[in-house]
Structure formats: structure tokens, C-alpha cells
Amino acid sequence: MRKSRAELADPKPADSGEAASGLDRQADGVPLYQRVRELLRKDLARGVWKPGNMLPTELELSERFGVSPGTIKLAIMELVREGLINRRPGKGTFVTRIDTPRGFARFFGFETPGGAVLNPSVKVVELEITTEAPAAAKKALGLGARGKVLFVRRLLSHDGTPVCIYDSYLPYKLMAGLENEKLDVDRIYYAIEKKFDIHVVAVEEMLKASLVGGKEAKLLGVQAGSPVIHIERVAFSHNNTVVEWRETIGRSDQFIYKLRSH
Questions:
Q1: Burial class for 217, CB neighbours closer than 10 Å (0-12, 13-18, 19+)
Q2: Which CATH homologous superfamily contains domain 115-257?
Q3: Inter-residue contact 102 to 96 (CB < 8 Å)
Q4: How confident is the model at residue 27, as a pLDDT?
Q5: Range of weakest confidence among 92-106, 146-160, 218-232
Q6: Where are the alpha helices (DSSP H) in 121-251?
Q7: Per residue in 200-212, is it b (16+ CB within 10 Å) or e — as a string?
Q8: Could you report the per-residue pLDDT of 153-173, keeping only the tens digit for each?
Q9: Boundaries of CATH 3.40.1410.10 in the chain?
Q10: For 28, which DSSP code?
């Protein structure tokens, strides 16, 4: 099963002329605000506005796209609901940062069966610079046999109960020095953003069911051979640059994984 991600377009920002000309009001019967939403989403993916940046006002955007402020407001509210941006009363509309609960929730799908949102604690249990990585990781990161990765294994827990194991493989040529950061304090995407100004803007995930091995079973507090949720993730920065390949092993007896498709 694949989790959809925002389309990452050509890095050249669309100017107001391009945006306006792309809005055929009769195209495919798609509401105008949805087409504006897609153009804004592409601008976010290109890095026209980075996490923490304030967007132009609704009036400025309406002039840019050649539509009414009401249409812009509908498009903005869609992106707010998706967690891509957030509104601050009296201040403006801002691109969501990964270090906020709303930003973290964009890329974390585990919940209780009742739908309760989790805010897990993080513990780094392994960390090393290595040339060893799964073939899928090397391929996704575009690394050769001797390409270095930073491997980080983290255990996420909720109220003392293990939720999942994150095994992250990051291209060391882009992340040199990340091993010195406190990755059990900062979320890893926030640490990458803070140290390298690299922003994770989209992910793709492949899910399957599997059985857990002995070492991972001990970390999760389950018996070896128990069924688990197995997820492979590729994380993208601006311009479709792959910045992480991740393998997640999650408990399926007390938690569920919800896919969010934007």
C-alpha cells in the first residue's frame, strides 16, 4: 500500500502570470479553489515558502492568482486541514514546522484503536556511520556500495509502552555532524532542518504485515514471531531530493497505523 505525497514540480517558482494562466475555470469540472490549492501546494513543495515562513496575505494571493479572496480562503483552509500550513490569529498564515505537534502529526500515523493521538517519547538505541545499509536504502539515496550513511535506530514509546522502532538511513554527505545532535530530544526532521536547513516536505510509504525478529521483539516488548506493522519510507526535501530511507517496525496489538492521503 502506498501513501500519496504532494507532487514535487520543477523548482522554478510560478509567477503570477503562470499561476493565473493555469487556472482554467472550466477545467475538468474541478472547483477553482481546489486548483488554487494545488498550485499553492506545489509552491510549498518547491520551497517558495519554507517551514516557519509567513505566506502572503489572502488579498495578495488573490491578486497573484487572479481570483477572489473567498476562493483563496477556501484553498488556504484546505491546506490548514492537511497540516501543511497554520493560521495564527492576528499574525498571519505560516508554513508548518516539523517541531510543532501539528507538523509532527503529518508524518506520524500511529494511533490507539480508539483514535487517540500519540505524542511519543524518543530514545536513540543505536547510532553509527557505516557503509552498510539495505539495498533499497542505497538505491533510494542514490549511493554506491561504499557510500556512507548515518544509521539511527530509535524506539518510540507512549506512556511507557513501546510503539515502534525507527531505523533511519541518512546520506552522510548531506548530514555530516548530525550524529552529534541530541536526537532523543529533537525530532530527527527538525534536527535536520535546524542544522542543515534541509526541510522534509513529503514522504512515500510502503506498508506490509510481517513477523518480528528476536532483537526487535525485545525492544517492542512482544514475543518473537508476533505480527507487526512494517513500513518502508522515503522522505523528500525540496526539488525531489531524497534525504532519508526509513524502516519502521510497529506494534499491531495495541496501536493502529492510519494513512492520510492529501
A1: middle
A2: Chorismate lyase-like (3.40.1410.10)
A3: yes
A4: 58
A5: 92-106
A6: 135-141, 172-175, 188-196, 214-220
A7: bbbbebebeeeeb
A8: 999 999 999 999 999 999 999
A9: 115-257
A10: G
- Please give the distance of CA 134 from its chain centroid, rounded to a whole number: 21
For residue 230, pLDDT beyond 60 = yes
Separation of alpha carbons 21 and 10, rounded Å: 17
Q: Looking at residue 46, what DSSP letter applies?
A: H
How many whole angstroms separate alpha carbon 199 and alpha carbon 47?
Answer: 9
Residue with cell 484546505: 78
Specify the pTM.
0.70
- Contacts of residue 136, defined as CB under 8 A and 6 or more positions apart, other chains included, come to 232, 245
CB atoms under 10 Å from CB of 162, counted, come to 21
pLDDT digits (tens, 9 = 90+) for 111-130: 888 878 788 899 999 999 99
Query: For a pLDDT cut of 90, what percent of the chain falls above it?
Result: 56
User: What are φ and ψ of residue 3, in 5° steps?
Assistant: -90, 130
| Spatial separation of the C-alpha atoms in residues 21 and 164, rounded to whole Å | 47
Q: Report whether 39 contacts 19 (CB < 8 A).
A: yes
Grid coordinates 552529534 are at which residue?
180
Nearest C-alpha neighbor of 126 from the set 168, 91, 92: 168
Query: Taking residues 89-98, what's their average pLDDT?
Result: 85
CATH of domain 16-95: 1.10.10.10
Nine cell digits for residue 215 = 532483537
